[in-house]
Structure formats: C-alpha cells, structure tokens
Amino acid sequence: MSHDCSSDDEEIESRPVVCMRNESEGSAKREARAGEKRKRRTKTNAMEELNRAFKAIAEAIKQTHSHWMDELMAKLLKYQNEEYDDATIEAAFDTLYKDEMEARAFIAKTWSMNLRWLKKFVDAEKQNE
C-alpha cells in the first residue's frame, strides 16, 4: 500500500492512515503549477508573436520586390506615347530588371533623364543588331 504520509510504525496497514498536509506546501505546489501554465502560455504567445513577425517580414520582402518592378513598368509605359513601341519598352524593362540598382535609379529620375537613357538604350540596341 502506498501513501504520502510516512510513519515509524510497521503496522501501517492495520491502522487507518491520517495525513496532515502542510497547507503552505500544497499552496506552493499549486502556485508552481500555475506558474508553469503561465510560462507555457507566455512561451506560446511569444512563439505566435514571432511567427506573425516572420510572416510580416516575408510579406514585406515580397512586396518590396514586386513593388519596384511594378513601378518600373508603369514608368516605362509612360514613354509609349513618345517614339517607343511595345518591343522597345519590353526590351528596356528586361535590361533594367537585370540590374535592380539601375532600375531603381530609372524610377527615381526625371522624365528628361529617362528619355536620354531610352535614347542611348535604343541606339545601343541598333548597334548590336
């Protein structure tokens, strides 16, 4: 027979067992269990928060990459009304897309600066033919 109370007497089985628990000991165990639950909840909350943060970072990275490409195409399409056809705009996009830094510079530059760039680009394309 097993029980929580200990006795020096060998005749434990024949007598009723009466255990007197120390109330502070039981209270300490309950507090420890509650503390463990709080720790688990805190760890779970921290993991959920970390997961949300990683998802936000991943989404921001996706948006950053698609954002500059969308801006680049929108900017290039504005030059279609000039002397540049779809094939030229597409070739310029493909060239700029390969060099993100140059593409971002194109996006940031003024209308006249980009017209000069497009003219140089078309001239270079003609020489390569």
Written overview of the protein:
It is a single chain. This protein has 129 residues and is mainly α. The protein has one domain (23-128). The chain contains 4 helices and no strands. It is rod-shaped and about 90 Å long. The mean pLDDT is 80.
Multimer state: single chain
Determine the strand fraction and express it as a percent band: under 5%
User: Radius of gyration from the CA trace?
Assistant: 37 Å
Major sheet summary line: none
| Domain unit count | 1
What shape does the CA trace take? Answer: rod-shaped
Number of helices: 4
Q: What's the end-to-end separation, in Å?
A: 98 Å
What structural class results from the helix and strand content?
Answer: mainly alpha
- Uncertain stretches: none
- E-strand count: 0
The whole-number mean of residue pLDDT values reads 80
H/E series:
HHHH
Keywords: Kinase, Transferase
Protein name: Branched-chain alpha-ketoacid dehydrogenase kinase/Pyruvate dehydrogenase kinase N-terminal protein
Organism: Dioscorea alata
What's the gist of this structure?
73% of the residues lie in helices and 0% in strands. The chain is mainly alpha-helical and 129 residues long.
Any descriptors?
129 residues; mainly alpha; transferase; Branched-chain alpha-ketoacid dehydrogenase kinase/Pyruvate dehydrogenase kinase N-terminal protein; kinase
Helix-strand blueprint:
Elements: H1 23-77, H2 86-97, H3 100-108, H4 111-128
Helix pairs in contact: 1-2, 1-3
